[in-house]
Design a protein that fits this description.
CATH topology of the largest domain in chain A: ABC transporter involved in vitamin B12 uptake, BtuC
Number of strands of chain A: 4
Organism (chain B): Aquimarina celericrescens
Shape of chain A: elongated
Low-confidence stretches of chain B: none
Oligomer: heterodimer
Strand order of the largest sheet of chain A: 1-2
GO molecular function (chain B): ATP binding
Strand content of chain B: 25-35%
Keywords (chain B): ATP-binding, Nucleotide-binding, Transport
Family (chain B): Belongs to the ABC transporter superfamily.
Protein name (chain B): Metal ABC transporter ATP-binding protein
Shape of chain B: globular
Distance between the termini of chain B: 21 Å
Largest interface: A-B, 36 and 37 residues
Strand content of chain A: under 5%
Radius of gyration of chain A: 29 Å
Radius of gyration of chain B: 18 Å
Mean pLDDT of chain B: 91
Number of helices of chain A: 17
Helix content of chain A: over 70%
Largest sheet of chain A: 2 strands, antiparallel
Helix content of chain B: 25-40%
Number of helices of chain B: 9
Chain lengths: 386, 245
């Protein structure tokens, strides 16, 4: 690997981490759409900052962009508060307006300054190592590495300082407010950090694809854990992993780096969506199938409990007597046998004591919905796990 | 019951988009009562609690908690929001939610430690949820979630408790368990204010009641004012309930 390659991957990784952190909270606050809005509407801020400084990596640019990001949120909330339109409509009204102002500004001045719409929207990570930070004749590395590094340090500092406040204001804003931990401050703090990160992610993925780096790793992590800290860590790992894999995919295909990174993010989400242990599609389908079998089992056991007559309990007649609902009677019989709930003598099925007990308990639970008695049953049967 | 006033509300008006939802409320909640706030949907019951807790800014009036504004008395007050107001798919555990009750006394930036964890575990024990402490909150039943919210308020160790529909969507066992804890709080001299929907249980559960329908209709001891007259004034002309006392 050349130095430039290492630098590009380093920049991409730092961008991924900086995005995953606010992204996690945005996903939990159901505000993914607002990143979309921010990522568009920081454009006029960037353009105006660029006209003043003529430098794409100037700090003024970041401040201007962050200001227009926060302005977006303020405008959205203002329109929403009128009560005339809903939040999604308000978002849809605000960001195209700000974005188009940015586009017109670029078009008007495109001849005078070098600011390419493509570069703003899609980023150009491959060129990032060429723009170096020089101090006193010494080369300190790529400018964008410094910018995103500083943004990441600030983000991490804020996360460690205000983790508790972020958590409670995200989960229960009413309680946070009552406790005096202002959810409004947290809200605008998060919006400011998101805006600043979006600008910082500029070189790597551009203003638009940054949405993918904010939302996809967090959404993927959400499917895999029930713990906020783990969700943050997983989101960071997914972000960095996709950034590095995406870089090498682009390298092999000789294609766009930001495009490859985003594609990898999408594929990663798809894999987790399909195969995640609890919330994944296959896991859900398997659980539903198990539940169907268990409902049939319970129907079957209840039938046995209700009928003393031998002809009602003959293996061959069970198929006719009970509507098995797409479940093979054999799998129901096997499940009952495996759990020692029934015995079969000369093709006549009988409940064991355990089976009798289980049936009473299960029916009791279904009728009264009392949880405490079936805690130990939950480990063995999906039906009672909700 | 002492004659001290826990919460004093004067001339309170709250509006959403300039449409008043609470009109000129005067209300004094005596210390040590277990009070129900009753009224039809849209009567402003939740809004009243939110205004007292400074979550919603009133357009007029004043609210005093033991003669001082709420901002100076936060540590005296605990709050149980409506269960439906939060996302129960949030990635966290029962214990962690109860710990959030300690965040107010910790203040900004400081992290909860062993002391807060111990208090949270005790509160979980009190509501009979200790064995569920590491359970993800979406895996709890509605009644269990409500108990977790109650534990979170208990951990605040406050003098006044505000609860927004704590019996909504809970089973009979949980309802009994919750009301027993509330009665214990009253015995310990605490003031408990509950937004309540089931009029049948008002005389059994509460000793004080406030009728609310945008305006305050009546407030006082259940045995004196919980009658058809006030119920009709609050809920409309044809409203009758049988009261067993």
């Amino acid at each position: 690997m050349s130095n430039a390659q290492i630098e590009i991957q380093l920049i991409a990784s730092l961008v991924a981490i900086s995005c995953a952190i606010p992204g996690t909270f945005l996903v939990l606050r159901k505000m993914a759409l607002i990143t979309d809005a921010i990522s568009h509407s920081i454009l006029p801020g960037i353009v105006i900052g660029f006209f003043i400084t003529h430098d794409l990596s100037s700090p003024l640019l970041i401040i201007m962009a962050a200001a227009s990001g926060v302005l977006t949120v303020v405008l959205v909330e203002f329109i929403q508060k009128t009560g005339l339109v809903k939040e999604d409509t308000a978002i849809g009204l605000v960001f195209p307006a700000l974005f188009s102002i940015g586009i017109i500004l670029i078009a008007q001045n495109a001849n005078d300054v070098h600011l390419d719409i493509d570069a703003v929207l899609l980023g150009e990570l491959a060129f990032a190592p060429f723009d170096r930070l020089m101090f006193d004749g010494t080369d300190l590395g790529p400018k964008s590495l410094w910018i995103i590094g500083i943004i990441l340090l600030i983000t991490l500092g804020l996360l460690f300082a205000f983790f508790k406040e972020l958590k409670v204001s995200t989960f229960d804003a009413g309680l946070a407010s009552a406790l005096g931990l202002s959810p409004v401050v947290m809200h605008y703090g998060l919006m400011t950090v998101s805006s600043i990160t979006t600008v910082g992610a500029f070189d790597a993925v551009g203003a638009i694809l940054v949405i993918a780096l904010m939302i996809a790793p967090a959404a993927t992590a959400y499917l895999l854990t029930n713990n906020l800290k783990k969700m943050l860590i997983l989101a960071v790992i997914f972000g960095v992993g996709s950034a590095i894999i995406g870089y090498w995919v682009a390298h092999v295909l000789d294609s766009s780096i930001s495009g490859s990174m985003t594609t990898v993010l999408g594929l990663l989400f798809l894999m987790v969506y399909l195969f995640a242990p609890n919330k994944g599609l296959f896991s859900v389908l398997y659980r539903q199938k198990q539940q169907r079998i268990e409902v049939s089992l319970l129907t079957f056991l209840l039938h046995l409990a209700n009928h003393e007559e031998k002809e009602e309990r003959h293996v061959k007649h069970l198929n006719e007597h009970i509507n098995w609902q797409k479940v093979r009677s054999k799998s129901v019989l096997n499940l009952a046998l495996k759990n020692n709930m029934i015995t079969i003598h000369n093709d006549i099925v009988s409940l064991t004591d355990k089976g009798q007990h289980f049936t009473t308990e299960a029916i009791d639970y279904i009728v009264t919905n009392k949880n405490s008695e079936i805690e130990n049953m939950k480990d063995r049967f999906f039906l009672f796990r909700g | 019951m002492s004659e001290k006033i826990a919460v004093q509300i004067d001339d309170l008006t709250v509006a959403y988009n300039y449409k008043p939802v609470l009109w000129d409320i005067d209300l004094a909640i005596p210390e040590g009562v277990l009070m129900a706030i009753v009224g039809p949907n849209g009567a402003g019951k939740s809004t009243l609690i939110k205004a007292i807790l400074d979550i919603i800014k009133p357009i007029a009036g004043s609210i005093q908690i033991y003669n001082k504004p709420y901002k100076k008395q936060r540590s005296l007050v605990a709050y149980v929001p409506q269960k439906g107001s939060v996302d129960w798919d949030f990635p966290t555990t029962a214990l962690d939610v109860v710990m959030m009750g300690t965040y107010g006394s910790l203040g900004w930036i400081k992290r909860p430690g062993q002391k807060q964890k111990k208090a949270a575990l005790e509160a979980l024990e009190k509501v009979g949820m200790l064995s569920f402490k590491h359970r993800q909150i979406s895996q709890l039943s509605g009644g269990q979630q409500q108990r977790i919210f109650l534990a979170r308020a208990l951990v605040q160790n406050a003098s006044i408790y505000f609860m927004d529909e704590p019996f909504q969507g809970v089973d009979a066992t949980t309802e009994k368990a919750i009301i027993n804890i509330l009665k214990e709080l009253r015995k310990a001299g605490k003031t408990v204010v509950v937004v309540h929907h089931d009029l049948q249980t008002v005389p059994e559960y509460f000793d004080w009641v406030t009728f609310l329908n945008v305006k305050k209709i009546a407030t006082g001891p259940v045995k004196d004012i919980f009658n058809d007259d006030n119920l009709t004034k609050t809920y409309g002309i044809n409203y009758k309930v049988s009261i067993q006392q």
